[in-house]
């Protein structure tokens, strides 16, 4: 068999495996392509009839790292086993090791100035399932691309243009960042627009992708260093003590551009999400009805739910109905 045939069969094998292990979910104007084995994902936004990517489509360049007692590894690699779930319209990847269970879930949302679902809230819940205290931190790297190119601004926040290496700490007054392209824009939260009591990232780092990718955890801040036309944003939640049976949750938003929604008071943002279930087509509120039915069946003894599943249902309902 010649080399061309070998390459052809390898390519077919690769494409088949990608399709088998990819969840392709379309809700409103958002398309989420999620690798069920690694948890890597790509977001697309429907611009007319075409889905435009909101960040680099390579699932290997945007990923989550976890710090465990001084060691750093990628979620989706050893020592974690992974599984995919989609409960009541909320796709999730569960990463489990002997001591930790990390649930990464995607809740589809609609910002105030949109008539369709136009983003996701990405939530990480980290639970200590072991018997000893563990020091755990998270780092989420996103390989942005829309703001790159001649004459473009790599990132825009609510107070400034970000044109070179920049570090934002949680005490700053920044609320969001935007990676703006010629057709679509990607907006990310710095502060949670639905809950101003939720912990903000300890750091958000805007830097050259290669620099962030090569650093095992934090890199030496080089203020003003050029992006080199390869920009990226990285969320850091610094390592913290997690005792047996305890957990913590962190959330951030990725949406189409809607600065007004990110800037208005929290209660008003909640009200924009709290529509009547009759209007479910606008916000996919059928999710609430399904969750309520699931709880009814649980209470009546028809089905069993774990404590974690009940927790996730409660968080989802509160998120929509406060």
Characterization of this structure:
By secondary structure, the protein is of the alpha+beta class. The protein is built from 7 helices and 19 strands. The strands form 3 sheets. It has a 9-stranded antiparallel beta sheet with strand order 7-8-9-10-19-16-15-12-13, with no helix packed on it.
Write the topology of this structure.
Layout lengths: L2 H18 L1 E6 L2 E6 L5 E7 L2 E4 L9 E6 L2 E4 L6 E7 L2 E7 L3 E10 L9 E10 L5 E9 L12 E3 L3 E2 L3 E4 L6 E5 L4 E5 L13 E6 H6 L16 E12 L4 E9 L3 H5 L2 H8 L6 H4 L2 H14 L7 H15 L1
Antiparallel strand pairs: 1-2, 2-3, 3-4, 5-6, 5-11, 7-8, 8-9, 9-10, 10-19, 11-18, 12-13, 12-15, 14-17, 15-16, 16-19, 17-18
Q: Could you tell me the strand content as a percent range?
A: 35-45%
| SSE-based structural type | alpha+beta
Number of strands: 19
Q: Could you list the spans in which at least 5 consecutive residues all have pLDDT below 50?
A: 5-19, 267-286
- Mind telling me the C-alpha Rg? 20 Å
Shape type: globular
Helix content: 10-25%
Q: What order do the helices and strands follow?
A: HEEEEEEEEEEEEEEEEEHEEHHHHH
Distance between the termini: 64 Å
Count the DSSP helices.
Answer: 7
Across the major sheet, the strand order is 7-8-9-10-19-16-15-12-13
**What's the overall average pLDDT, rounded?**
82
Brief summary:
The protein is α+β, with helices and mostly antiparallel strands and 322 residues long. It is 22% helix and 38% strand. It has helices spanning 3-20, 209-214, 259-263, 266-273, 280-283, 286-299, 307-321; strands at residues 22-27, 30-35, 41-47, 50-53, 63-68, 71-74, 81-87, 90-96, 100-109, 119-128, 134-142, 155-157, 161-162, 166-169, 176-180, 185-189, 203-208, 231-242, 247-255.
